[in-house]
Design a protein that fits this description.
The chain is built from 18 helices and 29 strands. About 25% of the residues lie in helices and about 25% in strands. A 7-stranded mixed sheet has the order 3-5-1-14-11-12-13, with helices on both faces. The protein has a 5-stranded mixed sheet with strand order 9-17-16-15-10. The protein has a 5-stranded mixed sheet with strand order 18-19-27-28-29, with helices on both faces. It is α+β, with helices and mostly antiparallel strands.
Amino acid sequence: MIGQAVNRVDGPLKATGRATYAYEHWEAGQPLYGFIVGATIGKGRVTRIDTEDAERAPGVQLVMTYLNTPEQGPRDESIPFEYWRAQPVLTGPDIHYYGEPVALVVAETLEEARSAADLVEVEYRAGRGRFDFGEFEDVYIPKTVNAGLPTDTAVGDFDAGFAGAEVKVDQQYTTPYEFSLPIEPNACMAEPRGEDLVIYVSCQITDAARDSVASTLRMAPERVHILAPFVGGGFGSKLGIHSETILAAFAARTLRRPVKVAMTRQQVFQLVGMRPTSSQRVRLGAGRDGRLSAIAHDVTMHTNPDIEYAEQTAATTRSLYAAPHRLTSHRLTALDLPRGTDVRAPGEAPGMLTVESAMDELADALRMDPVELRIRNEPTVDPERDVPYSDRHLVDCLREGARRFGWENRPATPASVRDGQWLIGYGMSAAIRGHFQGPTAVRVRLETDGTAVIQTDMTDIGTGTYTILTQVGAEGLGLPLERVRIELGRSDHPTSWGSGGSWGATNSCTAVHRACMTLREKLLDTVRDDARSPLHGLDPANAVFSDGNVGTDGASEALGEIVARNHPEGVEAEGRTLFMGDDPNYSAYSINTYGATFAEVGVDADTAEIRLRRMLGVYSVGRVFNPKTARSQLIGGMIWGVGAALEEEAVVDPRSGAFVNRDFAGYLVPVHADIPDVDVVVLEGYDDKANVLGAKGLGEVGICGSGASVANAVFNATGVRVRDFPVTIEKLLPGLPPMDA
């Protein structure tokens, strides 16, 4: 079953509205509703807060402020990952960023809560905030960047190598604040049950949510129960929990009633965090033959002064191309804005947007085919770690993509091909993303009726987890798909690292496979020693599990019969994966996924309107569990790249620190009318260094570099290079060639 294009097993539930999301649970009966009141300044202090009118409003049961919020646990910096730390809220009168919660109003209905929220009177003493990234030059060096990677790296002598290069590119690029913005906003329902607290929440890692709630509320973790059976998208924004969850939990414990809190879309922009804005300097030095002698990638980005987040934006450059002299660095500047957080492909997406644009600039300076330039700089070993690649097929992706796309028809000279009023251009980029592994446990239980139940606290954020776990379990035990049941998103199940970082599928599927192998051994030991079984005395090496039976040498028996006779209460086994730091393959090899993206655009010669005409991605991701869900993931990532190249940009008001375009009317993302023909090809593969199944994560590699392919196509169409992303009409129009040129 692994590798089959199976329809989503949870599809009928979602299509009929029976998939229950965080805000839709009614098991506890009629809940109360909470609404968050946010600060209207970006830096300063609350000098007066009056809740009397709000408390007297119809239906209001509670108004929480820093004056009556219970004591909270502190953020423990010794916990290595932010997602598991306490997330205190309403801790005092100080305001750290615009929109920060200053009150929660809880009422019988959402309308009553929202109306009463307008009655909370808050007076402030505003301070001088730091809101403008371009205004402040003071930076500092973080100890590490995201995922614990080193802040800086240096190989060889970059200054000498760059100085001696025959052809140089030295350019500054900027990327804006960007948001994850899943369809389901951050939402939670908290239900008190005696001394316990049940939290229905939209999250990506249930174990992190449980620990974070428990430490914030000063509860024992076993008293907190997280339920997240269905999550309406995450893209990194739900790896950790946020203020709505903590506030709902406090209110539920105070009132001894279930309380629901959901952020409005506008609040999501202010309260959840975003991809940091960045200024990136990329330097490439090469010979006339196109071979790189020196490569440097230096990044400065915003961070919050209280909660540091250093996106690993330059890290991908370390493994992508060969060059003897190398330099990467990360620097931070603290601004009074919401904290940075993981947004799909954190680091790789903004980093490859700039590096792959710079490679296109180098190809233009050399008058060389951009595909050929990349092939000439293909490394034989990881150029900074000096270890072999586990399974690298980037060149195959480049060549196959060029062949399928018709790259030979690319305009050799920018701004030289027109279709009526449209300037036509081709662009391409390479893609690379590290493959990660985290500790994950799965329990597989075989019942007396021959059905299997697979349990883990892993979440399905819309990516197809229910389906691929069903496939792996069915193959592992030789069962039809309909006899495998998946139970996800409960903190009472075996612990996983959840969904995120493109690690969820491979972690959980590998653990399922190992559990099934252990369960098979138990069953074979049982029948071998059972004189009542037709398989008594069998050689386990010859056993075949198929269609709900186990057989060998012409004899077979149904799995349900074996279990019913010998294990009347069922039989189970657990499978696990290790943290990658404990797996020797991750130190001995450079394990990544790869791809190449090709794009054709048209640019209106009069208005500079940009239209994507077609796009192709070719990827090498090891073994694929389900080509249908994989294709969906990769196309989704590519479309994110289009948004990063052409549309997505959150704008900060430098007077207050508020995002001025905090809804989908002002913050633009690609819609159906923006995206024409997008195709994906996945090369067959199997990476035995990644895991026993040979599979690698693919949820994020689709966005890596894809934005650069679009931006490079715009340059090829117009001859205008925009280095301040996104590429918009006002940046492109002044440089367009005249129609008679």
